[in-house]
Amino acid sequence: MKRIMVTGALGQIGSELIDKLRETYGAENVLATDIRECTTQKGPFEVLDVMDANRMRELAKEFKADTIMHMAALLSATAEAKPLLAWNLNMGGLVNALETARELNMQFFTPSSIGAFGPSTPKENTPQDTLQRPTTMYGVNKVAGELLCDYYYHKFGVDTRGVRFPGLISYVTPPGGGTTDYAVDIYYKAVEEGKYTSFIAEGTYMDMMYMPDALQAIIDLMEAEPSKLIHRNAFNVTAMSFEPAEIAASIKKIIPTFELNYEVDPVRQSIADSWPDSIDATAAKEEWGFKAQYDLDSMTKEMIEKLTDRLK
Ligand code: AKB
């Protein structure tokens, strides 16, 4: 049975990932850590600032963890607002987590992102291996992170694995500071107010995925037979690509009076414009059987049902 330590466990992905890991591997085998205190955990929890390399290593050692899932990071819009902080935290935290994995011989996962691509990357059906010259600090962090994870694999034999996540949509923990966050906010506002003002312009396509598919992808990749992996850091994964009017049309099938307006945020719009419209996940499908269960309409149905139960 795996013994997994998760950083950033109270974040958008981390908070659902720890529940899924605890269901899969047993609550006692998953150590959740975060910079914030939490008193409502259903398993082991420790406060950890990922910049504190010694504490990270000591916690992993005490817990006898054999896997680290490093989720703590600043997202694209926050990183653009605070570039130096993003460099220090995103890269510093990653190096500490990789060093912990190297010293303790642990398997390693960290997410990359569609943000690892830039304006010179082919926009449609973006290949697994292609030009990566991002123009955002987040993108610079993600490309550097992918290379560093590959370096730790080749140089030190650390079993590093990663995916390039698209925008992730969930009704559990809201994201913060991302460019794709509009595609989560829209569901909350649809249920609460019946209307939404999008900070992303009409016609802007980005890849997206429903959180249950993202969590399953992490588990499937980490369980994959290593000899099958030609790529490691990081695999393109996606479930759908849409623009704001298309998500609004999907919502209108359930809430016919829903209204969408636009008030574009130039910073987040320029980040979105630098990212692909749709990426190609063939390598992930072929090398470890990646498959998404949800499309736009099935995700919309579940998001609206769950948020209606919670918010009304
Ligand atoms: C963001 O918008 O910053 C993230 C991402 C796509 O990596 N959701």
TrEMBL record:
Signal peptide bounds: none
Record-linked InterPro entries: Epimerase_deHydtase (IPR001509), NAD(P)-bd_dom_sf (IPR036291), NAD(P)_epim/dehydratase (IPR051225)
Residue span, NAD-dependent epimerase/dehydratase domain: 4-224
Domain of life: Bacteria
Protein family according to the UniProt entry: Belongs to the NAD(P)-dependent epimerase/dehydratase family.
The protein's name: L-threonine 3-dehydrogenase
Source organism per UniProt: Chungangia koreensis
Lineage, opening ranks: Bacteria, Bacillati, Bacillota, Bacilli, Lactobacillales
